[in-house]
Amino acid sequence: MANPINKELAQWLRDRRAENFTRDEVHALLIEHHYAQEDAERATAIAFDCPPEDLESLLDDDFQAEAANQTATWIEGFEPTARIKRAETQNSIPLDHGAIKVVCRSERPYVIGLANVLTAEECHELIEYSRYRISRAMVVSPIDGSDLVDDRRTSELVMLSRGESPLIAKLDERIAQLTGIPSDHGEGLQVMRYGVGAEYAPHYDYFAMGSLGERRHLKHGQRVATLVIYLNDVEAGGETIFPYGDLSIAPQTGHASYFAYTDEAGRCDAMSFHGGAPVKAGEKWIATMWIRDRPYVAA
Ligand SMILES: O=C(O)CCC(=O)C(=O)O
What we know:
alpha+beta; Jelly Rolls; four-stranded antiparallel β-sheet; 9 helices; 17 strands; binds 2-oxoglutaric acid
């Protein structure tokens, strides 16, 4: 997810608009001031495509203070850190299909590598269930929160509903047992295929309050954790990477990476920045579950 637009930048954009700078001039100035291409495009779009009141809202001190202290809220009884306590002290977690094994742990970013989250048969079944339903993956538009095709996410995917088939219902329940978070906090499994060269460039899974588009998604709750389940072995590439933690996890059938990104106060951890590295040979299938801080009802 995108970085917030701070107050100074919002002010500068508003001033340039008031002085009748063109879109191209604003973009060129941002590049001249060493903004990354993608950030310059987003800022230009906010200045020229959003309703003026959206840009104005970024100038509000209370809003900026809230955005700087990015937090998730949670319902009573819910543990905002979303840590898997058992996986910190045990190497094996017995569940309905056998035992899930812990293969690696990182404290910050908080990542747990797991094996046997799904059996090889379940992985195969999930791929075949999804194969003919996938289409180009999208990202959340930072401008209005809608779905957007973006070169930073070049996989194909299908979004499954919670409990939509006996297999999916079983997996939803297994994930809830593993994480300790009720299955209705899950957004539903997304099954994704990456061909050679496809990737998901590093990003945050939590929503940034300072992003006009992402802010709209926060009314359905903040994301607190992600489970990425690998459904096949990938010949080369396709690791899940955590650039700030200098950590990468190679896909293996039935394995998973679990990462959680909120602390006791619900603050989101920028160290959770992560991505799916380009596939170099073969193809990569994964099933991702994004988990919210409260029961999730799709928009
Ligand atoms: O493809 C991967 O390994 C990572 C997927 C990912 O970043 C996500 O689903 O948020």
